[in-house]
Amino acid sequence: MYFLPVEAKLDVFKCLNFDQLISIQHVNRHFCALINEYEGELARKEFFSISFVDSNKYFNKQLKMVKTSVIEQFQLNDQLLEKWQSAIDEQIPLYLFKYQQTHPKKDFFIILEEDDCVTSFLRLWLPLFPKNIEEMKIIRYWLQRLFGCFYLNAEFRGVIFNPEMVKLLFNGHKTISIKFIVGRCSLSLWCFRPNKNNVLEFRKDHIIELFHD
User: What is the pTM of this model?
Assistant: First the structure.
């Protein structure tokens, strides 16, 4: 299969589900790059919802914790390395959230609900302020995974991903979609008064809502 033309490989990949594609990405660097390049044409993992919870106020042992110790095979050039290090030094946050001015160091879990029966959840923790380049790579890896899924409901009422950080992590990459594909999105502007323009930018550049009320 390695020597097949790209079109033939894509035909094979289109027959696989999301979990099978992820397995292939983990064992073959060539296929990983190809799947990343054409991920918009391939299967997406489906979730009932994506939301955020304050990690200091909410903890449920029944939620499965997603391991984040994955370092992406992503090569940084000197220019991007300098930009990333500057973001670390300036403490550019991964999230924007309400009351950020008075509580600037909150931590959040990303909650992925797999169905509407309130029985199957995944819990993902990513640092608000990445401390080093390795953590930046981990955040980029998981954001790419999240962007590659479909969510029937997206709850961004009090927390969103910082569009400045998203753009910095992906640096204008042409073949990776940095948009959440959602059925319906809940996003309250009043929660983000100091960051209203950033929220509007996040909505415009990073959300595709399929079902409008």
Answer: 0.78
